[in-house]
Design brief:
about 100 residues, single chain, mainly alpha, about 60% helix
Length: about 100
């Protein structure tokens, strides 16, 4: 996911208006200050911001306890595919038999 400053400013301002009841002007000022500071501190115009940090330990523990992949995905706010992919990353790679060449 690429970081677009203008889209992020609008999203933050809208969230501040809806969640905290700020006026559009004040929300826009806060959002602009936050995004500008992030750009100043972290440099550059483009940033990669992952959607979520996946807690593989919690996912592994829930799966071991018999919790379904669907329930885990809802609890963590990720897709079932992401749950399965994160579990697959924890498994050791299968070795295949290698035969000698003639």
């Amino acid at each position: 996911m690429s970081f677009d400053p203008d889209t992020t400013r609008r999203a933050i301002a809208q969230r501040l208006e809806n969640s905290y009841g700020l006026s559009a002007l004040v929300a826009k000022q806060f959002a602009t200050a936050a995004v500008d500071e992030m750009l100043r501190v972290h440099g550059g115009d483009q940033h990669y911001i992952p959607k979520r940090v996946i807690d593989r330990e919690a996912i592994r523990a829930e799966r071991a306890a018999g919790v379904s992949v669907e329930v885990i995905s809802r609890r963590h706010g990720i897709s079932t595919r992401t749950v399965l992919r994160s579990m697959a990353q924890d498994k050791p790679k299968k070795l295949t038999k290698v035969t000698e060449l003639p």
